[in-house]
Write a structure and sequence with these properties.
The protein is mainly α. The protein contains two helices and no strands. The N and C termini lie far apart (72 Å). GO terms for molecular function: protein transmembrane transporter activity.
């Protein structure tokens, strides 16, 4: 159990002293950028899926008469 406690203490020390964190303003702008591109990409996939769905439905309606 002491090994786990020591590991957690050393991990927090590493994060506090040796990690270079991105400035808050840059992190916010990058988060917004990722959110915008995620929304655009999901809308593009939805559009392609809708088109393929209509094409497949049309195809099956044609071959079934």
């Amino acid at each position: 159990m002491a090994g786990i406690v020591n590991y957690v203490k050393e991990s927090f020390g590493e994060l506090k002293n040796n990690v270079t964190w991105t400035p808050w303003s840059e992190a916010q702008s990058l988060t917004i950028l990722v959110a915008v591109f995620s929304i655009i990409f999901s809308l593009a996939i939805w559009g392609v899926d809708s088109v393929f769905s209509k094409v497949v439905s049309f195809y099956f309606s044609v071959i079934n008469g």
